[in-house]
């Protein structure tokens, strides 16, 4: 939960641009916390709170890392004041740095041109066909 706004805190430049969205998400958070959870399991009751918390953190993350719309000072201020979850953002940042965990295919054989590769492939295929033919038997052979 973000800290209460007092006059002693100096807000960095650009705060007035993101403040309305963060206050709106705060209001949604209070509403989700005060929502009665009649007949819901504990995890079902907590899901809206986690969803809003993630949404607020993702908003700050996107503004700084994706769109470069806010300064580093404002980003650090949001993290320090509890407007965003520092550890959750670290996971998202790591996820994006690793290429979204996408596996990149690299060939095992590096050949200078495709003709050489095709010749190698055809010779391997011919050898495999011979081996399969020698190892295979039919019912006629077993009689």
Automatic annotation (TrEMBL):
Keywords: Nucleus. GO terms for cellular component: spliceosomal complex. GO terms for biological process: mRNA splicing, via spliceosome. It is found in: Nucleus. It holds the Pfam family BUD31. It comes from the Eukaryota. This is Protein BUD31-1-like protein. The lineage of its organism: Eukaryota, Viridiplantae, Streptophyta, Embryophyta, Tracheophyta.
